[in-house]
Amino acid sequence: NNTAARQLPHTPYGESDKMVLRQYQIVGRRQPTETNPHPQIFRMRVFAKNEVVAKSRFWYFLHQYSKMKKSTGEILAVNEIRERNRRIVNNYGITLRYNSRSGTHNMYKEFRDVTLNDAVQTLYTDMAGRHRARFSSIQLRDTKIVPAGVRALKRSGDAEACNNDNVKQFLNSKIKFPLAHRVPRASSRSKRTVYKATVPT
Q1: Which residues face 44 on adjacent strands?
Q2: Is the distance from CB of 32 to CB of 22 less than 8 angstroms?
Q3: Is the pLDDT of residue 159 over 70?
Q4: In the sheet that 22-30 helps form, which strands lie side by side, from edge to edge?
Q5: pLDDT surpassing 90 at residue 32
Q6: Nearest-angstrom CA–CA distance, 174 and 168
Q7: For residue 53, which of 116, 144, 125, 135 has the smallest C-alpha distance?
Q8: pLDDT digits (tens, 9 = 90+) for 97-128
Q9: Residue 171 has pLDDT above 80, yes or no
């Protein structure tokens, strides 16, 4: 065989099959006509992997509410929402609706993460594993940051707190994690050797 094998492009491990979600704010309306020169403007926050999928989801959900579709409407603006600080861990509460094989269900879930995009990504993974819900059958209704602890409730004035046991176990200020794998190392470079005469204790 003289045919040369094609060399596939190199992709880092775990990035080829991982769907990274981004948050978009899309503003659209119905196309102006003589009878309605100033139609109502709609704004929607959509989580999608790119701008093309975000526009498609925008028209899909907007068609259910106002009987509007892409051929009769126009998009005014598409903006990606980025979080300023990615170093603070928050408790995110997400209200959703999804379609299963038996009907439509409402659900509320809580996740602990550093960004809302990562929390939504965990939500889609959790829904696919527990309820076999596809990405296209899940509709996010509301997202919010849930305060943690009694002191946070007094400061914010919110009547709700974290309900998920998996999230509440990390809210303890005195939480400790065991060091399972501790490797003894030499105190200086001169004492670092490959073979030891005695077994280290």
Answers
A1: 26
A2: no
A3: no
A4: 41-48, 22-30, 73-81
A5: yes
A6: 13
A7: 135
A8: 999 999 999 999 999 999 999 999 999 999 99
A9: yes
For tokens 């809210």, name the residue: 171
**pLDDT, average across residues 53-61:** 95
Q: Report the helix count and the strand count for the chain, using DSSP H and E.
A: 4, 6
φ and ψ of 142, to 5 deg: -160, 145
pTM of the model: 0.74
What type of residue is 101? R
Name the amino acid, one letter, at 95.
T
Retrieve residue 111's tokens.
């996740």
Which ranges of the chain does DSSP label H, i.e. alpha helix?
51-66, 116-130, 149-156, 165-168
* Residue whose C-alpha is closest to residue 26's, from 71, 73, 80, 65: 80
Q: What whole-number distance in Å separates Cα of residue 43 and Cα of residue 65?
A: 12
* CB neighbourhood size of 123 (10 A): 24
Contact call for residues 21 and 114 (beta carbons, < 8 A): no
Q: Which two tokens stand for residue 102?
A: 């038996």
For residue 192, the Cα-to-chain-centroid distance in whole angstroms is 45
